[in-house]
Amino acid sequence: MLRNYLKIAWRNIVRNKTFSAINMLGLALGMACSLLIFLWIQDELRVDNYHANGPQLYNVMERQFYDGKVVAHGATPGLLAYELKKQFPEVLYAAGFTGWDAHLTFTVGNKLNKEAGRWVGADWFKMFSIPLLAGTPQTALNEPNNLAISRKVAENYFGSAQAALGKSMRIDNQKDYRVSAVFENMPEQSTDKYDFLLNWEDCIRRNDWMKQWDNNGPRTRIMLRPDANVVNLEAKLKTFLKKYNNGLGPNFNIELFLQPYGEAYLYSNFENGQQSGGRIEYVRLFGVVAVFLLLIACINFMNLATARSARRAREVGVRKVVGAMRSLLVGQFVGEALLLTVLALLIALSLVVLILPAFNTLTGKHIGLQPTQASFWLMLLGMTLVTGIVAGSYPALFLSSLNPVRVLKGSLKFGAGARLFRQGLVVFQFVLSMLLIVGTMVVYRQVNYVQTKNLGYDRENLILLSSDGEVGTKFETFKNEALQLPGVQVVSYMDESPTGLGNNTGGIQWPGKDPNVDILFTHVSVGYDFLKALKTKVQGRDFSKEFGTDSSNYLINKAALKRIGYQNPIGQPLTMWGKSGKIIGVLDDFHFQSLHESIQPLIVRLSPEVSGKSILVRTQPGQTKQALASLESFSKAFNPKVPFAYKFVDEEYQKLYRSETVVGSLTNYFAFLAIFISCLGLFGLSAFTAEQRTKEIGVRKVLGASVGSIVGLLSQDFLKLVLLAIVIASPLAWYAMNQWLHSYAYKTELSWWMFALAGLLAIVIAFVTISFQSIKAALTNPVRSLRSE
């Protein structure tokens, strides 16, 4: 019997080649897109979740209470890891680490290169599942001069991991470190990307401020004992810092809390001190999109199967007359749907293999099909069964319910319930398509808004260089000679990139400040000509060598002025960390963080220390390429022991919105495919309607109806469904997009024309799709449609 059913299923597929091809194409596209999304989601969920001790690993976080606000972040005191391990028996291992990448110059013989890495605590390799090719977790970082390097670095400098063990490497042309371990290159599923690790003691020795409990910057991770009670530990951690910060006054209020390490990648956003989402929102969003695309493909299959149901009705009638039970008929039609789904899956897998390289380039992933893993086959099996059963269920139940007497008499008519169900499916398809169309428009406008927004400074033609080596120790000489190079306009420096200032402090005082209110200020130290380099407007003046007291003076932005409250700020006193000075200028507010954040109060101070800062070089418009070439030649001669490296500020800014750019591109593709598959379903329903109304159309033509009037007659019912879908989808799309935009402090506005344009586009596409079948039916010779069978 099964063999017979397979034969019948195959014959039906072959006999109806056009409809079978459309069915398979719709299902294949839906399954291919869903499979890509599921692979992406699977990869996202695996990030940082491959460590053997994962459930015991936690990031130590801070909640800071300032000015009626709660700010949560991962910056902690540099000595915190030591104290936590010492004070709490629940903590098995603890390690401080630099949350930023250090780009240091490595020298071995004649080999010279920049490598990216971090300083970490001695327990690091005991906590994380990082395979060691040489050395042991106990000795890898147990001495201040120890150095752990990746396989890539070991092979580049020494040829192999074993050859590197015990060798010396000079870092920044200052000190030799001994290679105490070689670890495997960090996997793609890790947010920690580094090629070397140095001991935490070495970092603290380099940075005295890390010994101060009122200074944050480093990060802290801990590993708890398997039997530790996390809730009790968090309760004790809440007030832990108070005994180390007694000198900060009665308003000091900083709480520690724990975030599971495996959740940090997906749950990175905090609002008012509480976790409020992150990349998990995109995982959920695309998970819903994957399900929607599969549903649209299944609805498409249902409509096409229904459109051909009249051709199968007599077959059902004969089978019922000769004794076939309904359950067997349902099984037959579901089986046919599953067979078609399997064929569609083969096409979908071929499409995925072709698309994956471009998909990986777009998303920045390294996703591949994993035929050796059972989870991959379970995913395919589950997708095939769900798709086949959902797609085949309605046609199977509908056809198996037909009355054999009515069918064999030729009086097959479809009731109101069946008609409403099919129309509901069309409405549902176009609601989903409308949501994706509106989403595409809003995401595109927001990404364009971000890319073109005036940040308050000119990020074009602005380059960041390293201050390593001679540049940091002989900056004035470097600056004077660099300014003579063709294309170089301004040279200055600052702590960090202007796109990501993150240092903040509450240690700002001024006359009249309310002693019961603590206000958090972002701060940055800069060099002369800083404002000229950024092209930022200022009321007052920039730091100048003509004023010897500027080393204790300050620039503030308008957001800071608003919090301070001075009416005439120029020349007014301001104290930072006990160092008194005056305000010499008020900057126009400029964006120094992501547009997700509102502009914070900013204090700018002059720093004579250049080492460790970013060198700002502004080039003449149109001469950036020439300036870079001359800077590289000059740098190699001036600073021969440090490789020349640079970054463009506008590219660093674009990196802040990589996720939004990827989401926008993916949404474009998925919206197009959703519309295309929906149109296939609409094509099927219009074919079904034309088939049901064949004799009516023939009569109308005999009585003189024009082709246009018949096309209008057949189209109006479908256009009503599309209009209903637009009415339903518009408020849903507004709510969804409003929620998405809510995460931005600066954003585009939702306008009525977006929904109108999306609706008009849906109507046009639907009309074009319907017209094909309507015109075909209207042009049919009425003699053929009225002829008796």
TrEMBL record:
Alphabetical keyword list: Cell membrane, Membrane, Transmembrane, Transmembrane helix
Q: Which residues form the ABC3 transporter permease C-terminal domain?
A: 288-404, 670-781
Taxonomic classification, please? Answer: Bacteria, Pseudomonadati, Bacteroidota, Cytophagia, Cytophagales
Q: One GO molecular-function annotation for this sequence?
A: transmembrane transporter activity
Q: Which domain of life is it from?
A: Bacteria
Q: Which residues cross the membrane?
A: 21-41, 285-307, 328-356, 376-399, 420-444, 669-690, 702-730, 750-772
The name of this protein is FtsX-like permease family protein
Under the heading PANTHER family, the entry gives:
ABC-TYPE MACROLIDE FAMILY EXPORT SYSTEM PERMEASE COMPONENT 2 (PTHR30572:SF18), MEMBRANE COMPONENT OF TRANSPORTER-RELATED (PTHR30572)
Subcellular location, in the record's words? Cell membrane
Q: How does it sit in the membrane?
A: Multi-pass membrane protein
Instruction: Name the major location.
Output: membrane
| One family name in Pfam for this protein | MacB_PCD
| Domain (MacB-like periplasmic core) ranges | 20-238
Q: Name one GO cellular component term.
A: plasma membrane
